[in-house]
Specification:
- The protein is mostly beta strands and about 170 residues long.
- A four-stranded antiparallel beta sheet has the order 5-1-7-6, with no helix packed on it. The chain has a three-stranded antiparallel beta sheet with strand order 2-3-4, with no helix packed on it.
- The two termini are about 30 Å apart.
């Protein structure tokens, strides 16, 4: 991974239902989709989701569900660990928090819904890079520690066949 970025967004969405709302009975966000592209040193994520508001109207005598598709564009700034050494790059965007309604109220004019929606995305750029490796001289040997239970000694098992060092599995 040569670059990574993360962004949490909370935005207010204004929706206008066909009937003058009396109260909001519920609000949920579904059907989130997104795509991403790299633009300079950031990732631009274009997405959409449906906001569903269950509400009462006509002085609390009827209920309806109002649905509207909301689109968005998020720009996620990247922090580079290393500059790429080739033009082959893969962009990955992971949704840490799906779009979610955190607040739903009726506007002061009593004709609109004001919905706060939060989401959190993380973007990664994967590509080729140069790596520096330190080479130690031949006389350097790493110490190995052995657990006494890991020694393979010949012993009999229940089937009577011999399991020894030559056919043991690691």
């Amino acid at each position: 991974m040569i670059a990574k970025g993360k962004q949490r967004t909370e935005k207010e969405v204004t929706l206008i239902p066909p009937n003058r709302p009396s109260s909001i009975l519920g609000c949920w966000v579904i059907n989130h989709t997104h795509s991403a592209k790299k633009t300079g040193s950031s990732i631009e994520v274009s997405g959409k989701f449906d906001v569903n508001v269950w509400y009462s109207h006509h002085d609390h005598s009827k209920t309806s569900v109002f649905t509207e598709t909301v689109t968005y564009k998020d720009v996620i700034r990247l922090r580079y660990r290393d500059e790429p050494s080739s033009s082959k790059e893969e962009i990955r965007v992971e949704v840490l928090q799906q779009p979610n309604c955190t607040e739903a109220i009726i506007s002061d004019c009593k004709e609109k819904f004001l919905i706060k929606v939060e989401r959190e995305l993380v973007a990664e750029v994967i590509g080729e890079t140069k790596v520096m490796i330190t080479v130690h001289p031949n006389d350097f040997e790493e110490e190995w520690s052995f657990d006494e239970s890991s020694h393979h000694q010949s012993h009999s098992n229940e089937g009577g066949s011999r399991v020894g060092k030559d056919n043991s599995q690691f």
